[in-house]
Amino acid sequence: MPEGCEPPRHVAIIMDGNGRWAKKRFLPRVAGHKRGLDAVREVVKACKEMGVGYLTLFAFSTENWRRPQEEVSFLMDLFLRALEHEVSKLHNNNIRLKVLGSRERFSADLSERIDRAEAKTAGNDGLVLTIAADYGGRWDIVHAVNQLIAEGQSAITESMVTERLGMAWAPEPDLFIRTGGEQRISNFLLWQLAYSELYFTDLLWPDFDKAALQEAIHSYWQRERRFGRTSEQLPEHLRRDKL
Ligand code: IPE
Ligand code: IPE
Ligand code: MG
Question: Would the CB of 59 count as within 6 Å of ligand 2?
């Protein structure tokens, strides 16, 4: 690790490009989703090894319900199977699993699995792995605001909204990664990405691996995070002194 460089505390990833990965191989789109799960395993392991504290993966957006019904069913089923097969492994690796999103449209079976997986891993203090599923940044903000209304609040501050977001327990992402070549946020963590470093790669999600993650983190280490201040105001170890 270069001197003065810490691993990002929180990495948030839009795992995009599964469909194109499959199409390139003349396979059905869902084959790409299956391979995407292999990439998830590898990236979780790499984050743990590199000392990342929080890894948040965007798996299914509130807009993804618009996809063909067979694809949606396949994704729901893949999620369910992954919970069945992977949670013990996560638990044995001291990983805490959280699921972020609405859950209203999930089957009772899936909802129960999620609750059980979260409960089982709740006491772990290693990597926190959050799967954003049926998640949308706008949903998250509106949900927080509705909570404030229900509490009878009238004057609302930023911290009051922040505290009521679905992932209020985590620090904001330091590094945002999107695979698959598109350079957009697609309604991911709208509020929390305000000061994240953004990294885009053309690699399709099933091809994203430890080396690709390391490359993203190297890019992150080149960034000077000023949060509105000037470079000169920063402590020496945070300056990147670019001309
Ligand atoms: C991302 O891959 C996975 C989900 C949105 C569930 P895509 O399925 O969006 O893959 P592309 O973008 O069509 O290649
Ligand atoms: C974003 O990918 C959502 C997830 C990866 C879960 P999409 O493939 O759905 O995004 P758009 O539609 O291209 O913006
Ligand atoms: Mg896509």
Answer: yes
Over the chain, what is the mean pLDDT? Answer: 96
pLDDT at 1 (0 to 100): 63
Residue 79 CB coordination number (10 Å): 22
Cα distance between the two ends of the chain = 24
CATH topology of domain 10-142+171-242: Undecaprenyl pyrophosphate synthetase (3.40.1180)
Position 89 pLDDT exceeds 60: yes
Instruction: Tell which atom from ligand 1 comes closest to the C-alpha of 60.
Output: 6
20 lines ligand 1 (CB under 6 A): yes
At 170, the pLDDT band (50, 70, 90 cuts) reads very high
For 160, left (φ over 0), alpha (ψ -120 to 50), or beta?
A: alpha
Q: Is 204 in the pocket of ligand 2 (CB under 6 A)?
A: no
pLDDT band at 174 (very low <50, low <70, confident <90, very high): very high
What gap in Å lies between CA 95 and CA 227, rounded to an integer? Answer: 31
- Ligand 2 midpoint to CA 138 (Å): 15
Which runs of E-coded beta strand occur in 48-174?
Answer: 54-61, 96-100, 128-135
Residue with tokens 């270069």: 2
Domain range summary for the chain, segments of one domain joined by +? 10-142+171-242
CA atoms within 13 A on the CB side of 82: 21
CA 19 – ligand 3 centroid, Å: 7
Q: Which residues contact 72 (CB under 8 A, 6 or more apart)?
A: 64, 65
What's the whole-number mean pLDDT along residues 205-209? 98
